Amino acid sequence: MLETTLRAVVRVDAQGRASFPFTTDGLQTLFEVSPALALANAQPVFDRIHPADLPRIQRSIEASLADLTPWQATFRVCLAGGRERHISAHSSPQRDDDGSVLWHGLATDVTPQVLERQERERLQRERDRAQREARARAEALSRISHELRTPLNAILGFTQLMQAALKDEAARPVS
To answer: Side-chain half-sphere of 14: how many Cα atoms within 13 Å?
Structure first.
């Protein structure tokens, strides 16, 4: 069974180099990066973060590093074959005696929940569009009906007058 949760310690040393001194096998599952590779250098993990999400993630990590505040983010990772995974992660930083910062954290695959939410949003948009189209059709039919009713009422009224006149003429005695 694949581990969809990652427990890890991320270390940023005084020179700004990041590594994973501890990680579970979830790193391989979530990021497709071996724990042994990340032990020396965290860059392969960061390379997996979606390019559109990376600047936001970098800024939030820098803020957490500067203020030693808890870090939390949801982001996408790009995997082999064009696959994408959505990750929700949070960690707590702690400064070490040597000046490095350690984040003890947890990352979870939230792809099913994100895809479900996106599907609900898509269905809601389709429903809203269908309702707008139905209202537009009803309004158009109402206008057409009104526009047709006015001249048809005049024609109907004139026809009734003609029928009444013909009945009157037919009812008169011939002299």
So the answer is: 4
What are the tokens at 110? 């939230």
1 pLDDT above the threshold of 50: no
Question: pTM for this structure?
Answer: 0.69
Quote the Cα angle for 112-113-116, to 5°.
85
Mind listing the pLDDT tens digit for each residue in 11-50?
999 888 999 999 998 999 999 999 999 998 999 999 999 9
